Amino acid sequence: MADFRIGDTLELADGDYLVESMAGGTLRLRNLRSQELNMIHVSAVPRLLALPPVLGPDRPGPRSFDSLPAEVAEGTRTMARHIEEVIYGKPHGEETCREEYDPEHVGLLERQRRKAVELSRLGHPVSERTIRRWVDLYRQSGPAGLVDGRQSRKDVPLGNLDIRVRDALVAAITKATNRSTGTGIRLIHEAKAELLRKYPGEEIPIPSDRSLRRHIGVLTKGKYTAGSAANRRSADNAPKRMFSARPAISPGHEVQIDSSPFDVLARGIDGRPVRAKLTIMLCKATQSIIATSVNVRGVKGVDLAFMLAQCLVPPPPPPGGGGVAHATAQQGLPWWWSVAQRDRTEGHAVGQAPQP
Predict the structure, then answer these.
(1) Could you give the percent of the chain with pLDDT greater than 90?
(2) Contacts of 38 (CB under 8 A, 6+ apart)
(3) What is the 3-state secondary structure (H, E, C) of the chain?
């Protein structure tokens, strides 16, 4: 069972128990066979039941507060303390009961009426019937039962749309990818024509054009169906998966290019000082910069062509280092093993001109 009240019978693992009274979070249970009395906390009941409680999928729980704004959650907790005072005579954590809510002298119906008057006096006008409904919700689900479902309701834009209408809209949107940019009216007409072609004679609940426009807006989000054709086709060509890094297994397997303002002042075309822009080509496998470009304007195709030529030309030997010293230094680099033996002997890898 998902909830219980005073007078109900609980089927626990060691027998049937009658709920005699409830004070705060403590229950007094009487074994119907041995007449033995037990005092247990209400949170321990689910673990002692012979069969686990069956909770509906829409039954609120403690996690319901996580999706609420802070002020709404605090207001719900405050209201829960008022309902606890109605049910138990005092909120959880309080030592004594107020005289007007003492369960020993005031009945439940009278406590509900007094709480309705008190809340109305505090600026929260509610009826006695509402207090009674809140009491039932609290007994079923605790403080989470008082959460206003409208505050945490999730919007399902396509929830009530017939699946046949949705498929027709998706087909019309897909056809528009490689065509000239159209309008929502064209998509609606094409979707209706698709429905007539695929389901002749069938009565299909088609929403109004205004609702179809709203559904099209949901289905075309991020696809640029009614926008730039170049953006629309680029978005369609993007892989339908999450982007992830690829391992670089050899030098030159993946080269990355990046541009950023350089912390160096240069004289521009108009003679004024400007910050230069640095562009680098980085080999991912060796983590080394293989080409650079510095200019005062944005990088263009000709700059990238010169950088490509720069990274393919062997680096010159260091001044005064000699070919032998330079070859020895290169032998410690990760890419040395991939250099052909002919290039090593002819000096291409050590920055020397090949012998004629």
Answers:
(1) 8
(2) 17, 28, 29, 30, 31
(3) CCCCCCCCEEEECCEEEEEEEEECCEEEEEECCCCCEEEEEHHHHHHHECCCCCCCCCCCCHHHHHHCCHHHHHHHHHHHHHHHHHHHCCCCCCCCCCHHHCCCCCCHHHHHHHHHHHHHHCCCCCCHHHHHHHHHHHHHHHHHHHCCCCCCCCCCCCCCCCHHHHHHHHHHHHHCCCCCCCCHHHHHHHHHHHHHHHCCCCCCCCCCHHHHHHHHHHHCCCCCCCCCHHHHHHHHHCCCCCCCCCCCCCCCCCEEEEEEEEEEEEECCCCCEEEEEEEEEEECCCCEEEEEEEECCCCCHHHHHHHHHHHHCCCCCCCCCHHHHHHHHHCCCCCHHHCCHHHHHHCCCCCCCCCC
Q: Which two tokens stand for residue 112?
A: 């509900």
Nearest to 144 by CA among 82, 62, 203: 62
pLDDT tier, 350 (very low <50, low <70, confident <90, very high otherwise): very low
| 70 contact partners, CB below 8 Å, separation of at least 6 | none
- The answer to whether 277 and 260 have CB atoms below 8 angstroms apart is yes
pLDDT score recorded for residue 354: 41
CA dist 92 and 85 (Å) reads: 8
> What torsion, rounded to 10 degrees, do the Cα atoms 302, 303, 308, 312 define?
110
Q: pLDDT tens digits for 16-61?
A: 888 887 776 788 888 888 888 888 887 777 777 766 555 444 455 5
The β-bridge partners of 258 are: 280
Contacts of 61 (CB under 8 A, 6+ apart): 141, 144
- Read off the pTM: 0.36
- Beta strands 273-283 and 255-267: pairing type? antiparallel
